[in-house]
Amino acid sequence: MTALLEVRGLAKSYREGRAGAKAVLDNVDFALPAGAVMSLTGPSGSGKSTLLHLVGLVDRPDAGEIRYAGENVGAWKRAAREDFRAAKLGFAFQRHLLLNEFTLLENVLLPAARRGETRALDARARGLLERLGIADLAAAYPPTLSGGEAQRAALCRALLNRPALLLLDEPTGNLDPGLGRKVMEELFALARDEGSAVLLVTHNLELAAAADLRCELRSHRLLPAL
Length: 226
Description:
Layout: E1 3-15, E2 21-33, E3 37-41, H1 48-55, E4 63-68, E5 71-72, H2 78-88, E6 89-93, H3 104-108, H4 110-113, H5 118-131, H6 147-159, E7 165-169, H7 177-194, E8 197-201, H8 205-209, E9 213-218, E10 221-224
């Protein structure tokens, strides 16, 4: 199966004052096909979020390549990277980052509003709210929502533009276990239906086990999960 995302020899270090550079990732390699879900586990501080930020073109690696559909996007200039990120990638984090002055539906439509496509994607947004069980809250404002409701809205926002790659960082952190399983099953099914690849960072081993590919960060390296 052809890989949508290929990561080769990725390395990243951060400087820590007089102690010098601290390696976070070292020679990380993996490939992720379209329509597949890959889970990433590992202890806190092992570099999971760093890897997600590199793959999401938020940060640059010290070495290595990040390729989407064969293109070495990691080497692109900032403006091209930002355009690609907006068009092809979807992000959802444990903090939902909804804006309190907008309704739930308006928050989901924010990526479309920035490109003048709100009307064109309104039906898509409402369909996602329906699929994740919060359609009745479309007119509600974030301060009135539970953590789980706000988190599901953030997932809808990440899916709005039918991203080629969906990047999830602890997306079930605000959901109770039963609801978390249900939401992620629906999310995985939707991503597979639309051909989106999913890279999921999680401490939830049950959720990680549901992925097509399972990896773990240990000693700065990416290894098959035990």
